[in-house]
Write a structure and sequence with these properties.
Helix content is 82%, strand content 0%. It is mainly alpha-helical. The radius of gyration is 22 Å and the shape is elongated.
């Protein structure tokens, strides 16, 4: 019984996270879509056409959150490895 409880506790404590490079790919896709694809579309509605023309202006603003998220995810995944390396460095001195 104790083994099942510890296995369940271990599984629930481990959070699944999206890798940092997925956020980078989302940032690139968002930027390219807003900067290059959206202005090329020619809708018949003038208001929608004006909205599509704002794509290149807002592309950097909408890409920045993805890049910040990627930086945070990269920092979070590298943090435990750095602690392990610091402990191993003490052994060699």
């Amino acid at each position: 019984m104790n083994q099942k409880q510890t296995d369940t506790a271990t599984n629930t404590s481990e959070k699944k996270h999206i890798p940092w490079w997925v956020s980078i790919i989302c940032a690139i896709a968002t930027y390219c879509t807003l900067k290059y694809v959206l202005p090329e579309l020619a809708p018949s509605n003038q208001r929608l056409k004006d909205l599509f023309q704002l794509g290149p202006v807002v592309a950097p603003l909408l890409t920045i959150p993805f890049l910040l998220l990627a930086a945070k995810q990269l920092y979070d995944t590298d943090l435990p490895k750095e602690k392990g390396l610091e402990e191993n460095d003490d052994d060699y001195m």
